[in-house]
Specification:
Blueprint lengths: L5 H8 L8 H17 L9 H15 L8 E4 L2 E4 L11 H15 L6
Helix pairs in contact: 1-3, 2-3, 3-4
Length: about 110
């Protein structure tokens, strides 16, 4: 089941969320989960939690609670993003979310 945890979000964002309470992060993850489900990826989907963490990061950056991402590292694979230019969508976190969501929805109906 794809449920994100505060621990997942803290691992993803590192020190940028050190000053934000677990309670606040929990509620942001709840909002993110409803948004992700509303955009076609149900809670039962294996990658729902991953998408929730990305969308929660977007919410935090959009509301000014954290700075936009400069890079991310997942299981030893690092990706860097330029913070000097503007993202077409307003936030690199939203770009990451949309890319991952497209990966999930792009396979919808293709796999038996």
């Amino acid at each position: 089941m794809g449920l994100a945890t505060v621990t997942n979000l803290r691992k993803y964002l590192g020190e940028s969320v050190a000053d934000i309470t677990d309670t606040d992060l929990f509620y942001i993850l709840e909002d993110a989960s409803m948004s992700v489900a509303g955009q076609g990826v149900p809670v039962s989907h294996a990658r729902h939690a991953e998408l929730c963490v990305c969308y929660a990061a977007y919410i935090l950056s959009h509301t000014g609670r954290i700075q936009d991402v400069a890079s991310e590292s997942v299981e030893g694979v690092a990706t860097s993003y330029s913070r000097s230019g503007t993202s077409p969508n307003g936030s690199p976190y939203l770009d990451i979310y949309r890319q991952k969501r497209q990966e999930v929805l792009g396979f919808h109906g293709r796999i038996a």
